[in-house]
What does this fold into?
Amino acid sequence: MKRETTIAILFGIVLGGILAVFILMKNKETQLEKTKSISPSVTVTPKIVVNTVKEEKVLEVTQPKDGAIVRKNSVSIAGSVPKGAMVFITSPIKDLLLNADKEQFTADFPLAFGENSIEITAYSKNGQSKIQTKHIKVYHLDEQL
Amino acid sequence: MKKTIVPFIFVTIVLLSLTKIAKGQTPTAVSTDEAQVSSPSAIDEEEINTLKEKIATKVAELREKNNKAVGGSVTTVSTGALKIKGSDESNYEIKIDDALTKAYQIVNNQKKEIKIQDIKKGDYIIVTGDLNEKTITANFIYVDELYIVNSGSVSEVNKEDYYIKVLTGDKETFTLDIETFTKQQMLNIKTLKPEVVGFSKVKEGDRLHFVVKRTGTEREVNRFAAQKIFIIPQEYFIK
It folds into this structure.
């Protein structure tokens, strides 16, 4: 065999090998692109979502106490409500509407002699939240013990 | 002469000095004695008065602390005792002392003394006194009128018979007769101020605050002539 022939055969084998490797690699890439993976390719890190929505304040009447005996003909009604709520205080002798700019409210309220049934209602600013109501009885009596 | 003068002078000086001492001491001694006798009694009296005041204040505080008021309708009248049903649906026994317990009738924001015997079954009374569980030793009894203050949503408006049915938060239905004396007000949702309105403005679904007086002559259970109503229109909640 001639020397040129041997070089040509070797050159052909090397070139064929390089070509084969190139085709194989290209084929693998195509297969990876077409294959749909079952497991998620992106790692999902679980996140703890903290609910930042503030729980709505509950209507509370701090004074007077239910069943209180009062000697004066008026009483200071105080308590806490959701901010911006409309507070409606009613009794047989008086209706009072307040707009609570803060979470607290206070109001001077007249009393009739004897038993005073007083209803305090808080309506939230937007009118959407639930209505909260409290009933108290205050006794305006002038007795001397 | 000299012999007699010297002892004489000596004796005189001694006597004079003794008199001086005696003169100087006597008032002090008397005043000390007086002080010893009078000051302890004055201090004692002062202490007794302070103690008396303290006891009186403490007793008043305790009586004030134990003094409770309970309102309810009289269910039983007997000698020396009454039974009432409170607004909390509890039954209370009222002990009456003929000598100590005083009774009054409240009329037009004034009290008028009455006899215990004037209290009858069905009366609404306020009793004040020492409350021990469900027994009250009455100091004062006031015969009063029972007002019911409540609210709920309007479930029916009858424009022929002029009544409104209201379902309260406790799932109780009240029928309110609108009379000529009924004070009717509504919240203006723009100004958030109350305004006087007529019966025609009330709609089903509105929220309604009401005050009624129990007279004992009601035709139906939970049916009353309304003293006043206050309407929060449903539009307030859907704005």
Summary: The interface with chain A takes residues 60, 63-64, 67-71, 87, 106, 109-111, 126, 128, 139-140, 142, 144-151, 169, 185, 187, 192-194, 207, 209, 211, 213, 227-228, 230, 232, 236-239 of chain B (CB under 8 Å).
